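Bench notes, afternoon.
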Amino acid sequence: MLELLLCSMLTVLPDYLFRRYGQGKRVGRELTLYTVWYELRWGITACLILTISLITLIFYYHPSSKNVTALFRTVTILPETSGRVDEVYVGLNQKVEAGAPLFRLDSSEQKAALETAHRRIAEIDAQAKVDQTELVGADAQIREATSSYQMAVDEYEMKAQLLKSNAVSRREVERLETGIESRKSALDASIAKKKTLETAISTLLPAQRASAEAALAEAQVELDKTVVRAGVAGTVQQFVLRPGDVVNAMLRPAGILVPENAGRTTLIAGFGQIEAQVMKKGMIAEATCVGKPFTIIPMVVTEVQDVIAAGQLRPTDQLVDVQQMAQPGTLTVFLEPLFPGQLDGVPPGSSCIANAYTNNHDALADENIGTLRWAFLHAVDAVGLVHAMILRMQAVLLPVQTLVFSGH
């Protein structure tokens, strides 16, 4: 309507003034309801053509979208293990800091595993002390076996000398020689036992203790998992857990955590696909939201998604007919406030209306620009004012439309 009024001032109004004062035609006589088309046909035709051209120019180079939302993400409150709730630390709609405990599951099994791990470490430490004591005994056995071996050798050497003078029997000497071998074996066994104890003390027991400590750490981790904490600072929503409730990591979440900054820094808009060549990163934009009426928020385009979400294809066991994708998708654009804090007061999830404005300042500053292109780009930048006026009219009428005409 605004475009039609502007165009009529440039076409229909001059045509009427010429007919009325240039040709002397009077309203009610030559200019009647039945002759208005014939008399003002040039102005009306030019007005329609100019209006259509102006609307096309405005909406193409300064796109607008009503599909704008302050999207926000939520964090599902889920334990890493399933179990029965033993204690609840927070209530519904309570604000929590990152790392704050939310609830605790029954941890009797995890505590038992932790105690078992502690006992295993204590058992290994006790075994180390026992092996140290046995190592002292092994040293004593080695000394005893060495003495016995040396005594057998000395006795054998003495009897061997006596055998030369036939003072002892050969049978006695052979028996002493066999005794030497027996005591040598006993000495070797004592030395091997000592080496076994030393290996156990220096290698086996430390390895067993390291394994036990790893099991202790694993048990502690499993115990810590029974206390579910907030991953980010935010507000707990839909949280109605009570002690005794069963929570399952796959089927029964405990609630939802809404991060405190979610939806308060970015608007996500869906513009028509025809604006894909116009929408660029860095464009200036404006938005007005239902949650913050009568307010124009200056924005800037920070990202333009380079794909249309409606055309995505997932691997399935059926061929997909393109006709099933008849619903055209939109071009996803991310808008951020031009100045910090301007989205304060806009509830996350609020619906908005946004305009983006093409800026040809750099192209107009080029010294080699042609006259026709210079005039066209000036016209493109100038008609952006019309779209800005329309957005402000929408900002004024939006509460009326929402509260009165929508029946809410």
